[in-house]
Specification:
The chain has 209 residues and is mainly α. The chain is 59% helix and 2% strand.
Length: 209
């Protein structure tokens, strides 16, 4: 998975965005962060301080905070390695190409790279992970929403990116993460991701064609 920032591009001041879009971007960023590398104690303390609500997504957040309050960083690191690294490969392969074609480094990755180039984005020099991993795509979606590297993307542009690079597979990945035999800390992460992807898909469906 990603070990450092995925994208590089000239940063520019972005205009204000709505609180709702800020919350969406924050959740995308959170999923990207928690899936990019094993959480250290500082990250676990941050997760433990989150507050859920009575919605399904809020309840998933509450479940994750409960685990974060009692789990040790070494335990999370071991679980992360079993899920995503393993001996040769982990229990899950969190790449769009794999989920969409059954193989790594296939057409979905090439399509993503073209879309990144069109937006002036590129993989950071110190990152060797293929760009179509789930953590990177969550980061990219957040960047589009808030205009991290320019003007915030329109809802139509967000919809296009989401439907092309995230919707076809991310929900399946998060469901697999939720149900993975080694998932404890990451089970509620999978539930959060699955529910959030459903909410996003429904929201984009409401946008007029």
């Amino acid at each position: 998975m990603m070990q450092e920032q995925m994208m590089t591009a000239p940063e520019t001041a972005a205009p204000p965005i709505s609180p709702e879009d800020r919350m969406r971007a924050d959740l995308y960023n959170f999923l990207g962060m928690i899936l990019a590398r094993p959480a250290d104690q500082l990250s676990l303390d941050m997760v433990a301080g989150l507050e859920g609500n009575d919605t399904e997504l809020g309840q998933a957040i509450t479940s994750l905070t409960r685990v974060a309050r009692v789990v040790a960083p070494k335990t999370v690191e071991r679980e992360f390695n079993q899920l995503f690294i393993g001996l040769g490969r982990g229990e899950l392969l969190p790449y769009a190409s794999y989920y969409m074609t059954g193989f790594l480094n296939e057409k979905p990755l090439a399509t993503l790279r073209r879309d990144m180039a069109a937006r002036g984005l590129s993989r950071a020099e110190n990152v060797y992970e293929p760009e179509d991993n789930i953590a990177s795509l969550m980061e990219m979606m957040a960047a589009l929403i808030v205009g991290r590297f320019g003007t915030p993307a329109t809802l139509e542009d967000q919809k296009t990116f989401f439907n092309r690079h995230i919707a076809p597979w991310a929900g399946h990945f998060f469901s697999d993460l939720e149900a993975a035999k080694t998932s404890v800390f990451f089970a509620p992460v999978g539930q959060m991701g699955r529910l959030f992807m459903e909410i996003e898909a429904e929201g984009f469906r409401m946008i007029a064609e």
